[in-house]
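Suppose you are handed a protein chain with no further information: no name, no annotation, nothing but its sequence. What can you learn? This example shows the usual starting point.
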Amino acid sequence: MRAMTYRGPYKVRVEEKPMPRIEHPNDAIVRVTTAAICGSDLHLYHGMMPDTRIGSTFGHEFVGVVHEVGPSVRDLAVGDRVMVPFNIYCGSCFFCARGLYSNCHNVNPNATAVGGIYGYSHTTGGYDGGQAEFVRVPFADVGPAKVPDWMDEEDAVLCTDALATGYFGAQLADIAEGDVVVVLGAGPVGLFAARSAWLMGAGRVIVVDQLEERLELARTFAYAETMNYTEHKDVVVELKRTTGWLGADRVIDAVGAEADGNLVQHVTSAKLKLQGGSPVALNWAIDGVRKGGTVSVMGAYGPIFSAVKLGDAMNKGLTLRANQAPVKRQWPRLFEHMRSGYLTPHDIVTHRIPLEHIAEGYHMFSAKLDGCVKPLVVPGGE
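A reasonable first move is to predict its three-dimensional structure. Written in structure tokens, the prediction is:
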């Protein structure tokens, strides 16, 4: 089969790889029909995540058709159209029993923190991802779900991570009616978090970014006020000024490990890799939220030290809430919002890239060329 493979920082290509096979009776093999490149994939592409091995296939957002099932699979059959959450989880361990699917204890040898994730280095289990023609799906009766007949395929693929993660980020922020919510980052997750904040009762939503094409989507898709941080000497002071000098009630960090905005912090993390990620956005969140407020962390960070202002968070009495999204737990509410017309996720899709051209797709997305906000990947596409 044809699959994207990692060859080192900033180097990916499409190669022939062996067809995935059934390794456990609960496995399924899925023929991928649509995948996506996520902002989190760029952390791998840039060499930010440890133990990202040569030959790995990325991609944790994908939908497809069941090609083969193991002998123990009961809920799926060959030919079913399925959407696959990025979490790989057993469904029965201590954490899964509590709905913490992203923290499953049985699918990742490094499971002191995160569980298994498709295509996201050996720190999350070493599973190959869906930027390929076929992918092995473990615990096929637990994670995947049949795509509803009424759901558009591009909406379905966004439900497997970006939409569910943005919605979960707004949930973690614990938004109360009338709250002022600031979202740092206007990538897909930030856009979905901002849109979701309205569904949870926000009275005002402000999105911070530096790219005008993303800020335009924040205005037209998420109906938010916007702030280009490059136009302000101190973004925290500007956030406080626009919130009556108190700060926002809730701040959502949808940026993560490669945040710009502070040259020294960006260089020590993204370039020299002395930290698990640039703490710029998270420190802006801590400084920009009001005393007693809540900071929700959805941006992906590496598993090593980051210079976060924990003392300021403690002295301000902040609540910090963070996790990888337990995707399938969000689906029932998201599906209702979509059926009711409150959400059309594929409105943020800007590019559709054939799998054979994925190297160009990664370059375009990484370098923010051609207004690329959310690229989809189409195996066999022309």
